[in-house]
Design goal:
The complex is a heterodimer of chains A (96) and B (416). Chain A is mainly alpha-helical. In chain A, 35% of the residues lie in helices and 7% in strands. The longest helix of chain A is centred in the middle third of the chain and has 12 residues. Chain B folds into three domains: 184 residues, FAD/NAD(P)-binding domain (3-Layer(bba) Sandwich); 133 residues, 3-Layer(bba) Sandwich (FAD/NAD(P)-binding domain); 80 residues, no CATH class. Chain B has eight helices and 29 strands. The chains are: A mainly alpha (96), B alpha/beta (416).
Amino acid sequence: MELVTKDPGYGHVVCRCETVTEGEIVEALRKGATTLDGIKFRTRAGMGRCQGGFCTPRVVKILSRELGVKEEKITKKGRESRLLLYKSKELIGAQI
Amino acid sequence: MKYSEIDVAVIGSGPAGMAAAIKAKEEGAVRVLILERQEQLGGLLQQCVHNGFGLFYFGQDLTGPEYGHRFAEKVRDSGIEALLETMVTRISADRQITAMNNREGPLNLRPKSIVLAMGCRERSRGQLNVPGTRPAGVFTAGTAQRLVNVEGFVPGKRVVILGSGDIGMIMARRLTLEGAEVKAVVEILPYVGGLTRNEVQCLHDFRIPLLLEHTVTQIHGEQRVEAVTIAKVGKDKKPINGTEQVIECDTLLLSVGLIPENELSLMAGVKLDPLTGGPVVDHWRETTIPGIFAGGNVVHVHDLVDNVSWEAEIAGAWAAKFAQKGRLEKERKIILKPGRNIRYVVPQAISTQNDVTLYARVKDMEQDVQLQVGNIFMQKLRVVKPGEMLKLDLSQSQMSQLNVNTSELIVECGAP
């Protein structure tokens, strides 16, 4: 309760399988995590029974917000491992 | 205590949770509380922007959000309370619920009865043991559905889909409409896993290649998916050497089955049926723990939302009765067991005093069959498939012909 009063993020469960809160994810970010796997290895978010099925979009959103970069730039494990290649409607009419 | 006098608490607010809560209220429960982890009511309906919802329940062809909206309005109008962005972390056998949100922190409540309506989750890559590297670009179909329909991203532009469940086929169409190229839907069985209507409307109508009796044998790519190897499978469902082909793609979606979400049920000590993955329930949709009811995909995976809501209404109605009386009076029960070519039957126990609708799934596709419950003839069908659930209406008068000592009935599907 004290933690939630100090930072409401600790009351917001992002990864339901491993019960990882937004507060813990932001903390991992501040300690240096910059990728989805970085968050996973530090907090266990995405390591549970649904294997990130539920929390992946949510963790990407938090990474984007905290790092101040677009969601399309967020990677699984750095370099070319981007998760979301296009914005919606970007491909329509484009040559595939 | 703000939440000390709750009659019925409903875990989840998808098509099951909202229907159960509304029904509980209609049946006289004074305080009904929904606990929902997302920001709004509706659960997975929010991301199902395709049509086909409510054809039976409302007699109208609605999208997922439209279907959910009708229930959500009723929830608000009937004075049902809802705690959003609230994750239930624990339920005990004596109906203590522990939940948490970012406004109130940890919450403890003890409602008079509980309806489990947590729905289901998707099987993931880890449960398939697909060999290969672990690049970005492997998603379950439902995660991709959320990314496209709610978050506004297209994960990639050259896509292979493994498995032909309903969400997979719907995403094949959705990604095609978004301008991506779906190179193939690969299914290990000789027929699709989902509904025929989705096979026709999502795959055939969009000329998306469907490769039956094939599977993905390797994922390639270090950083991002670069290709997958697929192969034909034999009768034993094992890949046949020499039939491999490599398909270049940047995304692999998995649509390989759904699993009822029962971690909370297990914490409470509710007994699960290994055949459905959901709680063993009776005619009243009560689980093996008195006062804990369940309905919808948490009990068994349905293929139509209409049935999810109807089933959850049974749970909601009896949860309201339980909240009023502290227990349910139950007459003689008959246990139902799956027999020839039947994978499972829900509910697992029925009352002989009321009409009942049974839900069942077959193990394998079969043609020209007859369905029986014990000696009671139910119906003849031209074709049965695992992807299409059977619904059997058993009337009280049919059951009145049963021997008084009958305690068990076998549900069977076979040649007439």
